[in-house]
Write a structure and sequence with these properties.
- The structure is a homodimer of 478-residue chains.
- With 478 residues, chain A is mainly alpha-helical.
- Chain A has 3 domains: 12-167, MgtE N-terminal fold; 175-275, CBS-domain (Roll), CATH 3.10.580; 307-477, Tetracycline Repressor, domain 2, CATH 1.10.357.
- Chain A has 23 helices and 7 strands.
- Chain A has a 3-stranded mixed β-sheet with strand order 2-3-4. The first copy, chain A, has a two-stranded antiparallel sheet with strand order 6-7.
- In chain A, a hairpin with a 5-residue loop joins strand 6 and strand 7.
- In chain A, helix 1 (12-30) packs across helix 5, helix 20 (344-372) packs parallel to helix 22 (414-444) and helix 20 (344-372) packs antiparallel against helix 23 (453-477).
- Chain A is globular.
- Residues 1-10 of chain A have low confidence and may be disordered.
- Chains A, B: Its main location: membrane.
- Chains A, B: Acts as a magnesium transporter.
- Chains A, B: Pfam families: CBS, MgtE, MgtE_N.
- Chains A, B: Residues 233-291 form the CBS domain.
Chain lengths: 478, 478
């Protein structure tokens, strides 16, 4: 990709990483004179001055979204330096683009005037998005400069949860009546300074702002100018309510290839619209949240967060993991007598637990994914369980036999080999069963099936694996 | 969301799952007469006939993307029944929407005539997308019905890898010259039957089809009709090359909020365009692939795949896991003498290994994610390593002390407690180091850092944890 780069033979997909790397270098070399730069005092050394000019030039050329990426990729100190040098008129846009964790660190460094200047040019929905992270005084003063309608919009947007359509909608509506001709619409549009981003359709409403349909620009452009809007507009409209779940709305955008969609209230009155760029963010964040949660991170983390912030973000899952590991340890403790007699058991038991955990994670990941994309409803659980159990049985017999044979040869004991086959098969069956039941139960209970599923399944297959293996060994080998 | 549902009080976000559930019920009840339905023989039983009529009606109402979701959510037998009953004129669209695994099962049931009918109305890029899964004879005959230009487009699209922009571009280009007036453009557009999906900009080219700029529809609509295109068009254009990486292109779409973008060849000649709907699929698949790979699944799996297909999809990671578990087992085996003397070691060692694995997975997931979004470049690895080591040290001292105390009390041995503190801290430090180094090394080697990272880190922290704990115990406690 390229944004018509200066060097036309180099595409921009290649240029951005190079720019970022160069900014890193420059920021690092300017770090020693950070305080002078912050105080806007001139730099004496010529070489540093050249660096400073180059850095400012690079930053001014970057799109706000790219500045956001640069800030996210920098350690705290360099980040502050670059933030200080970035174009202040883009501050608001950049704040909207950075991750929540980094946004906090940036806002902390700004005083009230800077913040007010940054949010001055933002739309109502954008101001609402930042409002939670801004000091109350700033929000209050920023609202004072807006008119009544915009204040109401900010408040409306702020009244919805982050995962609701209402928090993501904007208010840049272009709407027309159904009884005018396409020619009139075209003339009406020409009176705008510019049309809102992503405008791919115009909303058709009646006298009470009730949504009647939409007029896709694609149709407007090819329609006979004399034709009335009501004969050209689409009445089968995908529309949302502000209370709708943002993830489900994003899936609808994906499924029906939407670019924008109207948001209506309970009386079908048009109140806002959602655009694909917000939905893409939802899709990205949703998949990432699942991945982070499965790995035991509470939320997205600033790569260069202070150590204690990182510790806090991770301590909960570590603590839970420690508890489950302790339970597994007590299961082993109960069989210390057996281990004392056959020490080989201690060496073999992690294999049984490990394969159960791995296989259970495969099952649970597949099911969590199927649930996220709406492929799986509760009443298929029984059928899926049957299939997963069959897969586990095949894997158990194959891999159990392999490891059974290896154990037999290693410890010269057919008994240990047979216990190994049986324990591995049983633990795989346990993993398959629990791997289906945990996410199904979580979803029935109205909870996110991804949350902690990996830790839970590993807990079961660890303790279960030790119990099965040591139990069988105690019964048959002692 | 709703597509103006029959029952206007019910929104469609709620309706689709209900429809799907009802289709499941109907398909199940019709299963006994599957053969009669397939042979298009009339059903004798009145009740079944009513079911059949309702099922066909429901399917005809659904969007092809929703039919795809229904098919993905059905077990094989019911899936075939529903596929047989779905509107044949939508077959091509549905095949494009379903996952690769399910697509194969559907194509298997269709004969040559059905397949040719299904792909008849598809665009060149869509035919190219399906071509890999279609029998050669079908592709050959489908191409015969196309004109020279379309055949060239299909072949061009098929010549790129799945993860390149070229495989995702389409050829529905609307292009104009720079020296005409906006009025002329509007008149030119009116001659189209309809404009391509997602048209948000018109491409401006010279006499040799070289891209000069783009004319956003938003600007065209508000421009003075007398104004020439060259004065209205944007020349800073985000454009791609067909060889560009699809993931990076998708990130550019996300960053710059694009709806469509031109694709040009090495001479800057316009050859195609990419649209946001394809990019959304890339974003979704990319995050999912990371998640599946980390859990040890090779690829997206049909939920109701035959047991042996599922076994095949999972066996590789299970085998790798088994190998690493075996190595860990041999590490323990080397300390059998120590365990025989202090059996408590066997019970405590999984705790040390477990916390290392959990913590290492947190680190590696965070880094893999940062790499996927371009936040992390190689030269920050050292700094990140320092931070992660510091986090590990804090966690090690806190949780190590907790478990050290518990072990001391449990086994009434301060020595075991101290070994526990030291081993946990050291294994956490190992996990942090390897958790940073594995993805950085993978990326330097040009490989996907997500692939197998979880299995690798667990292998290191398991074997490493056992070695550290049993080693320290052997030195200090025996």
């Amino acid at each position: 990709m390229s944004i018509e780069a200066q060097n036309p033979s180099q595409t921009d997909l290649e240029r951005l990483p190079l720019d970022i790397a160069r900014i890193h270098e420059l920021a690092e070399s300017l770090l020693p004179v950070y305080e002078q730069i912050e105080a806007n005092r001139p730099l004496e050394e010529h070489k540093l001055n050249t660096c400073l000019v180059e850095l400012i030039g690079l930053l001014r050329e970057l799109h706000p979204a790219d500045v956001a990426t640069v800030l996210e990729s920098l350690p705290q100190k360099e980040r502050m330096l670059v933030w200080h040098l970035a174009a202040p008129e883009e501050d608001g846009e950049v704040l909207l683009e950075v991750s929540d964790a980094v946004r906090e660190t940036l806002i902390e460094t700004m005083d009230k005037e800077e913040l007010l200047a940054a949010v001055e040019d933002l739309d109502a929905d954008e101001l609402a998005e930042l409002a939670d992270d801004l000091p109350n005084q700033v929000v209050y003063e920023a609202l004072k400069t807006r008119d009544e309608e915009e204040r109401a919009q900010v408040q409306a947007a702020m009244s919805y949860e982050d995962d609701q359509v209402g928090a993501l909608m904007d208010f840049e509506l272009v709407s027309i009546r159904a009884d005018v001709s396409c020619e009139v619409v075209l003339r009406y549009l020409r009176r705008f300074e510019q049309l809102p981003d992503h405008t791919d359709k115009i909303f058709v409403v009646d006298d009470h702002e009730v949504l009647q349909g939409v007029l896709p620009i694609r149709k407007l452009l090819v329609a006979d100018p004399e034709e009335r809007v009501e004969n050209v507009m689409a009445t089968e409209v995908v529309r949302f309510r502000p209370e709708d779940d943002a993830e489900e709305a994003a899936q609808a955008f994906e499924r029906y290839d939407l670019v924008t969609a109207p948001v209506v209230d309970e009386n079908k009155k048009l109140i806002g619209r959602v655009t694909i760029d917000e939905m893409v963010d939802v899709i990205r964040e949703e998949s990432e949240a699942d991945m982070l949660n499965m790995a035991g991170l509470q939320e997205e983390e600033d790569l260069f967060a202070p150590v204690l912030d990182s510790v806090k973000n991770r301590w909960m899952w570590l603590a839970i993991n420690l508890c489950t590991a302790f339970i597994a340890s007590r299961v082993i403790g109960a069989f210390e007598g057996s281990i004392a007699k056959i020490v080989a058991l201690a060496a073999l038991m992690p294999i049984v637990a490990g394969i159960g955990g791995n296989s259970g994670n495969q099952t649970i990941t597949m099911i969590v994914r199927a649930m996220a994309t709406g492929q799986l409803s509760g009443n298929q659980a029984r059928r899926l369980l049957k299939k997963e159990v069959a897969v586990a049985l095949v894997n158990g017999v194959i891999w159990g036999s392999v490891m059974g044979l290896v154990s037999w040869l290693l410890y010269d004991s057919p008994g240990i080999g047979l216990v190994m086959v049986a324990a591995m098969t049983l633990n795989l069956l346990l993993a398959a069963t629990v791997g289906v039941l945990i996410p199904v139960a979580m979803e029935k209970a109205g909870r996110d099936p991804a949350l902690g599923s990996s830790v839970l399944i590993t807990a079961v297959t660890d303790s279960g694996g030790f119990l099965i293996f040591l139990g069988l060994a105690t019964i048959f080998l002692l």
